[in-house]
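hey m, so remember when u said the tokens were messed up on ur end? i reran from scratch. heres the input so u can diff it against urs
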Amino acid sequence: MHAATEQLLAASGLPWTALRNGFYAHSLGWLTGPWRETGVVRVPADGPVSWTSREDAAEAAAAVLLADGPHDGPVTLTAAQAPTFADVAGLASELTGRRTTCEVVDAEAWVADQVAAGRPEPVARFTLGIYLAAAGGFFAGTDPLLGRLLGRDPVGVREVLADPEVGRG
């Protein structure tokens, strides 16, 4: 839907801007599961994700709106790096001083476990799609523009994981 909208805008001949935000970092809590208690990030697939802070994306959107010059076309706002879930587990280990591992499990077994824990199967399968998209590299893109618009480094996974509420998902 987003790509089709951008194509229509591009074909219009009018100036336009579309913000392409990275995968929101606040979702780390529910996508990494209860790693603080278990010491395990258990996922059905692993791949790179440009975990991007919503607050950073909002601040950059304001900068785009207030810019003197145009930002015609797509504007990619992502974190500077795209760590995998295994990388996230490594960062969690560094932050807590306790070993945290990443365990990639069979996708159907993961779905069954989610359903057994009370998650509706359509929700579990939708969430599985997120992991599979990460494994396929669909969330791996990074762009330095976010940091330039902010005038500082974007919030990274380390800062997100340092929040004690992250990982309670």
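this time it looks ok to me. The mean pLDDT is 94. if urs says something different then somethings off w ur setup not the seq
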